[in-house]
């Protein structure tokens, strides 16, 4: 039972390079999310997708783009990486059955931009 | 501005020494308060959801309670394996999307044997 799978686990980029973080879930959830986690800042929402074919901005979307490729996959792209994007990135999907609501998180991608 | 504040930032306990973690929030129309546990190098893992003042939920040595402006996570007779960062989160005002969360900065708990 894989849950939410993120790749890669670690990545080092130079300023200006681009990359895509991949996320896939096997729980048939409609909603998926991208968060970043920085020391002293807590988790902050970058983008989310309420359902296949829709995406919306979160609290800190600047410098990022997303694609909801299908129900399983939700990718995050950095077009021109900046040192301020050094962070740990978490993908999550939401299970919502009545009042039983919760997020399932992946294990994260640690990104360093030099 | 919607905010979630957790205290203390760090807590060191001896095994068996009970204590409480605090989470205060400023959203007015609460649509759920969530507690997650995060181990080093891993993603957060769901613990509890509380929806209304007076509600309580328990899981092993953990009990979460909710008032109109704050939540407490009580840890009774903790063990070293309870060492982790505990995160509190709420949806922002007006949002029914309970995956779109405002997180506190977390409380890092260390339990020494």
Task: Write the SSE topology.
The complex is a heterodimer of chains A (114) and B (113).
Chain A: E1 4-7, E2 10-13, E3 19-25, E4 31-38, E5 42-49, E6 56-57, E7 64-68, E8 74-78, E9 87-97, E10 100-105, E11 109-113
Parallel strand pairs in A: 2-11
Antiparallel strand pairs in A: 1-3, 3-8, 4-5, 4-9, 5-6, 7-8, 9-10, 9-11
Chain B: E1 4-7, E2 10-14, E3 19-25, E4 33-38, E5 45-50, E6 56-59, E7 62-66, E8 70-75, E9 84-90, E10 102-103, E11 107-112
Parallel strand pairs in B: 2-11
Antiparallel strand pairs in B: 1-3, 3-8, 4-5, 4-9, 6-7, 7-8, 9-10, 9-11
Fold and architecture overview:
The complex is a heterodimer of chains A (114) and B (113). Chain A is mainly β. Chain A has no helices and 11 strands. Chain A is 0% helix and 57% strand. In chain A, the strands form 2 sheets. In chain A, strands 2, 4, 5, 6, 9, 10 and 11 form a 7-stranded mixed sheet that branches. Chain A has a 4-stranded antiparallel sheet with strand order 1-3-8-7, with no helix packed on it. In chain A, β5 and β6 (56-57) form a beta hairpin. The mean pLDDT of chain A is 95. In chain B, the strands form 2 sheets. In chain B, strands 2, 4, 5, 9, 10 and 11 form a 6-stranded mixed sheet that branches. A 5-stranded antiparallel sheet of chain B has the order 1-3-8-7-6, with no helix packed on it. Chain B is globular, with a radius of gyration of 14 Å. The chains are: A mainly beta (114), B mainly beta (113).
The gyration radius over C-alpha positions of chain B equals 14 Å
- What is the average per-residue confidence, as pLDDT of chain B, rounded to a whole number? 93
- The backbone outline of chain A, from C-alpha atoms, is globular
| Succession of helices and strands of chain B | EEEEEEEEEEE
Largest sheet of chain B: 6 strands, mixed
Number of DSSP strand runs of chain A: 11
Total helical elements of chain A: 0
